[in-house]
Amino acid sequence: MAVLRVAVEDDLEIIHGIEQSVYPTAWTLNFFRLMLGLTGEMFLVALENDEVIGYTIGGIKKMGHEGDHQTVGHVLNIAVRKDNQGGGVGTLLMDEIEGRLQKNGADVIYLEVRETNTGAQAMYRKRGYQYVRTAKGYYGDEDGFIMIKSLN
Q1: Does CATH place domain 3-150 in 3.40.630.30?
Q2: Angle, helix 29-39 to helix 12-22, in steps of 10 degrees
Q3: What band does 1 get if pLDDT is binned at 50, 70 and 90?
């Protein structure tokens, strides 16, 4: 069974390797370093036998107009090593990041997913996310679907 903890600098090369193996357009190692500094307790890794097998990164912000804004959580990234997919690690990571976003005041959570990543879309729908709109060219080589989940 995987265990979760907050990511540390020493995890970043392994995280970057997972990213490169599962996504056609990977974040750079320096971008992960930036995220580690910006997101703190919202950058989590999943470990099995002390080895990083997955990660997720969340963020929180206020959106809307002055006097009428809501606190919004954003699942920026999530990935599980290919040979560990399908074993509940992604669910464990999503449960934890959603809980942390909610604890930090999020009323709504949103994420982006590749138009062709139907497996992830199905998982997100099961978790209560709904399609909102298509972001043309979001991934450069492909459109992204914006999905949201209300926590109220």
Answers
A1: yes
A2: 120
A3: confident
